UniProtKB/TrEMBL annotation:
<comment type="similarity">
    <text>Belongs to the Lgt family.</text>
</comment>
<comment type="pathway">
    <text>Protein modification; lipoprotein biosynthesis (diacylglyceryl transfer).</text>
</comment>
<keyword id="KW-1133">Transmembrane helix</keyword>
<keyword id="KW-0812">Transmembrane</keyword>
<feature type="transmembrane region" description="Helical">
    <location>
        <begin position="121"/>
        <end position="139"/>
    </location>
</feature>
<feature type="transmembrane region" description="Helical">
    <location>
        <begin position="225"/>
        <end position="242"/>
    </location>
</feature>
<protein>
    <recommendedName>
        <fullName>Phosphatidylglycerol--prolipoprotein diacylglyceryl transferase</fullName>
        <ecNumber>2.5.1.145</ecNumber>
    </recommendedName>
</protein>
<feature type="transmembrane region" description="Helical">
    <location>
        <begin position="97"/>
        <end position="114"/>
    </location>
</feature>
<keyword id="KW-0328">Glycosyltransferase</keyword>
<feature type="transmembrane region" description="Helical">
    <location>
        <begin position="12"/>
        <end position="38"/>
    </location>
</feature>
<dbReference type="Pfam" id="PF01790">
    <property type="entry name" value="LGT"/>
</dbReference>
<dbReference type="InterPro" id="IPR001640">
    <property type="entry name" value="Lgt"/>
</dbReference>
<feature type="binding site">
    <location>
        <position position="140"/>
    </location>
    <ligand>
        <name>a 1,2-diacyl-sn-glycero-3-phospho-(1'-sn-glycerol)</name>
    </ligand>
</feature>
<comment type="function">
    <text>Catalyzes the transfer of the diacylglyceryl group from phosphatidylglycerol to the sulfhydryl group of the N-terminal cysteine of a prolipoprotein, the first step in the formation of mature lipoproteins.</text>
</comment>
<feature type="transmembrane region" description="Helical">
    <location>
        <begin position="254"/>
        <end position="272"/>
    </location>
</feature>
<feature type="transmembrane region" description="Helical">
    <location>
        <begin position="59"/>
        <end position="77"/>
    </location>
</feature>
<dbReference type="GO" id="GO:0016757">
    <property type="term" value="F:glycosyltransferase activity"/>
</dbReference>
């Protein structure tokens, strides 16, 4: 199966009273993923006895801080690209969002919201994290429409074709890499991995967490978030090794370094969480 992105990255584009009105698939998929993720989180909040309006109220803060964090993170590692025209930092239409920065912003938004509304931080993270991963899984398809976040050429029977003007060197050489060259669809790999992760988190919560009978519950507040950090980072580590557009920290791929840190932090978090005595609420 060979995927080929549409020539037009816009859902629609027209001019109204001389003003261009444009909606990109990239933005639609990010917002659609966020809304579906919030819907899932609101259902989980109701199941735990919380007002679902908290999820929708937090969504606005989470979107602002998540997108800001994702952009700031990306710009930090790509500053040479933006230095000649710093105002281009504000142009998000062509991508340039790093999910690890978005994760930092999203977690900070949860911290702020739960402190302001006196909600339990770790339990609220557990409520939201399957929805966050669902949003990641859907949002990754925005990379498909932007023809970005693809991997090196592959001989596999499935992959993605990329237009010459969207390729990175040396794959712009059409004599060596003709238009029918197939690249690793790394955005697809990560999307599928994330969908599997959503199912895993929901299954664990149902079998060992809040959805299980009291005597069968083994998960403590924060466990689902730590499991998310381990699972997502494990997939991101190997997928990142295939990508051509990685951010670098010296000679190392930044996403792989951060993934190793998150996996280690997730393991340590689980150990500490189960080593200490549970709180009365837990």
């Amino acid at each position: 199966m060979i995927l080929y992105p549409p020539d037009d990255p816009f859902l629609f584009y027209f001019t109204l009273f001389g003003l261009p009105i444009a909606v990109r698939w990239y933005g639609v998929l990010i917002m659609g993923g966020a809304l579906l993720g919030a819907y899932l989180a609101s259902r989980r909040a109701v199941a735990r006895g919380y007002d679902p309006d908290h999820v929708w109220n937090q969504l606005m803060l989470g979107l602002i801080m998540g997108i800001a964090g994702a952009r700031i993170y990306y710009v930090i590692f790509e500053w040479e690209r933006f230095a000649p025209n710093p105002w281009s930092v504000l142009n998000l239409t062509t991508g340039g969002l790093a999910i690890h920065g978005g994760l930092i912003g999203a977690v900070l938004s949860v911290l702020i919201y739960t402190r302001w509304n006196r909600l339990p931080f770790w339990e609220w993270l557990d409520i939201c994290v399957p929805g966050f991963l669902l949003g990641q899984a859907i949002g990754r398809w925005g990379n498909f429409f932007n023809q970005e976040a693809y991997g090196r050429p592959t001989d596999l029977p499935f992959g993605v074709r990329i237009d010459a003007d969207r390729r990175l060197p040396p794959y712009t050489n059409l004599q060596e890499y003709p238009l029918d060259t197939v690249f690793h669809a790394t955005f697809l790999y990560e999307s599928v991995w994330n969908f599997i992760g959503v199912g895993l988190l929901l299954l664990l919560d149902r079998q060992l967490g809040h959805g299980a009978p009291p005597k069968q519950r083994r998960l403590r507040p924060g466990d689902l978030f730590f499991i998310y950090a381990i699972f997502y980072s494990a997939g991101r580590f190997w997928i990142e090794g295939l990508r051509l557009d990685s951010l670098y920290l010296g000679p190392l791929r930044t996403a792989q370094v951060v993934s190793l840190v998150l996996m280690s932090a997730g393991v340590v978090g689980l150990l500490i969480n189960h080593w200490r005595r549970p709180s009365r609420r837990a």
